[in-house]
Design goal:
7 strands, extended
């Protein structure tokens, strides 16, 4: 009742292995799945299938609430318990918006202090800090350039490291799929696999590999761009100055 294959879809990356050398598979989070709709002939009507899903009460089939977003959302943490500060607002009153501790609001005992900060106060603090940075940059341009370049270099190195790790995992998976497909041919020749089963499994792996090769190509391009990255400090200063002018 929850298998999308019956409505003609092919779902890839439902599981993963930590290394191509390890046989153990782990469940992958749903956002990392790749779904190819109408890839083969369905045996269950899609509308009926989706109607059945609602009876399970699973949140993954519910429509997300439409909420107002804030530029600081996801960046603020509670100084005591480390939980996210959630954005709250009163509909129709933009002046009354604030961030508060997730655990304190849930009253789960993980945070005993009340953490509450208004968005307008937070915005003013950030603007004041940006003004100080621009002032320092104008007065001590050489020192500022060195600080920014050094920090940017660290961020670029970290991003490049993560991209390289992901790239190597996907290259390993690509090679693993080659071995799996080769194994299918051997099983078919030995008579251990029917023609129908052989075709289904081969299509599944080839479909996954096709998407994988495109991701590998994109990652290689990202790694290459990181190597060529050059920070435009003057452009950065112009952007910050324009933001300050537009907000005054």
């Amino acid at each position: 009742m929850q298998n999308q294959s019956y409505i003609g879809d092919v779902v890839n990356f439902k599981t993963y292995s930590k290394s191509f050398k390890l046989k153990k598979r782990h469940d992958n989070s749903r956002e990392n799945w790749e779904v190819h709709k109408n890839a083969h002939e369905p045996i269950i009507d899609r509308a009926d299938f989706e109607k059945v899903q609602t009876t399970f009460g699973d949140t993954k089939y519910r429509k997300p609430k439409q909420i107002e977003k804030n530029m600081f959302a996801g960046f603020l943490k509670c100084s005591d318990c480390g939980a996210n500060l959630n954005y709250k607002y009163i509909v129709g009153n933009n002046d009354n918006s604030y961030f508060s501790c997730k655990n304190k609001r849930a009253n789960n005992g993980l945070c005993k202090k009340t953490h509450h900060i208004r968005v307008d106060m937070l915005t003013q603090v950030v603007k004041n800090n940006i003004a100080k940075i621009v002032g320092f940059a104008n007065n001590f341009e050489d020192e500022f350039v060195k600080l920014v370049v050094d920090e940017n270099y660290k961020l670029t190195q970290e991003r490049q490291r993560k991209n390289n790790e992901t790239l190597q995992k996907r290259i390993a998976r690509d090679k693993e799929i080659d071995a799996l497909i080769e194994g299918l041919f051997e099983e078919k020749i030995l008579g251990n696999l029917t023609e129908e089963r052989f075709k289904k499994l081969t299509y599944k792996y080839e479909d996954e590999q096709s998407g994988l090769k495109q991701k590998i190509k994109n990652l290689k391009q990202m790694v290459l761009e990181d190597k060529k990255h050059v920070l435009d400090v003057n452009g950065f200063l112009d952007i910050v100055k324009n933001i300050l002018k537009s907000s005054t």
